[in-house]
Amino acid sequence: MMTAILKMALRALARNKARSALTMLGIIIGVGSVIAMVSLGQGAQKLVQEQISSMGTNLLIVQAGSQRTGGMRGGAGTSTTLTPDDLTAILRDVPSIAAGTPSISASVPLVAGNQNWSTRAEGVDIEYPSIRVRAVAQGQFFTESDVRSAARVAVIGSTVANALFPGQDPVGQTMRVRNLTFRVAGVQASKGQSQQGQDQDDTLLMPYTTVMKKLLATNYISSVQLSAASEEVTDDAVRDITSLLRARHNLRPGQEDDFTVRNLADVAETAAETSNVMTLLLSGIAAVSLLVGGIGIMNIMLVSVTERTREIGIRMAVGAKSKQVQAQFLIESLVLGLAGGLTGIIAGIGASLGLGWGFGWAQSLSPAAMFGSAIFSMLIGIFFGYYPARKAAALDPIEALRFE
Question: pLDDT tens, 25-45?
Fold first, then answer.
């Protein structure tokens, strides 16, 4: 019986192909927009997570704060109170920290033969490759002995290597950094550009003691990069580091910190939350099209009931029951909703892939969103088709047969 009713419903829809297609348009636009927005939103979240992960494992950054001079307040990193001894204390007294490296940088000109380049030299410790997940592709990283002796040795990125030593093996070569001669110990593995367009291979790493003593002649550092033992303990680590450094820097209660502790996991979480809000907002706007499409289904089904009043009367006169008439119109509206939903899913996939390819946007197709959209489309068809179906089933066969 249901098979016969389904065939009758499909034949009724096929008689007005253009009207059926236009009726589904609102559902198609709504579902397609939701799929595209969710795909792009999840792609953005995934990209942020990958960027944060590529920066380091459970990375925390302690940055020197601002310095006040003559009533004027400098920018972040101008304070001179953060020292390598602070890192030693953190590694000793904060058990949730697995590793750490000081960091201090300086802009430097580089010269090798008749080639020259300008970049920033960053002074770090031997833990830097494991903390920042940066492997050495050629040669090796500098050693603990190089750090203790403030050796003039460097590890360069592939951009610097290509600029100073085109077509050559840079390992073992010498270059001048300012007026000092440095030996190239290794070349970092290439990472390409970041999403902000920054060249992550334009790097020059050397022992932090070398930068402090031979390039800047200073006894303080600009930041400390730390790796927590696990993601779960990062919040505890931030609290313990803050308490320890306040005590070491003799800061009284109520006095402002002269340092900043940044948890990149929090940065990733905030970015993900922002992306979620935007995705939900855009998806909500797109969902309005689904409601409009549902109203369109109801409107067309009401028109269809009016147009087919005599047909309904004849069916009832030859023995069709009210429930069978109601089932036919419900199936028609259900088919409209489901067909529109499936077409919308295909359109949404095409839109998200097209936008990703055309604008270089990250996208991640969501099976859950597709499945949910298909179910929601069916529910819209049933919900908005129920009233017209009830109206058709409630017709008086005698009155229906008299209808002109």
Answer: 888 888 888 888 788 877 776
Q: How far apart are CA 108 and CA 114, in angstroms?
A: 17
- Residue 322's identity, in one-letter code, is S
Angstrom distance (rounded) from CA 239 to CA 234? 9
Q: Is 97 exposed, middle or buried (0-12, 13-18, 19+ CB in 10 A)?
A: buried
To 10 degrees, the CA torsion angle through 137, 138, 140, 142? -90
Nearest Cα residue to 258 out of 71, 394, 128, 68: 68
pTM of the model: 0.61
Q: Contact at 8 Å (CB) between 237 and 231?
A: no
CA 302 to CA 391: how far, in whole Å? 8
Residue 117 has pLDDT above 50, yes or no: yes
Using CA atoms, how far apart are residues 226 and 91, in angstroms rounded to an integer?
Answer: 9
Sign of the CA dihedral with 22 first, then 24, 29, and 32 last:
negative
Encoded tokens for 75: 């920018």
**162 alpha-carbon distance from chain centroid:** 32
Q: Which of 241, 200, 195 is nearest to 93 (CA)?
A: 241
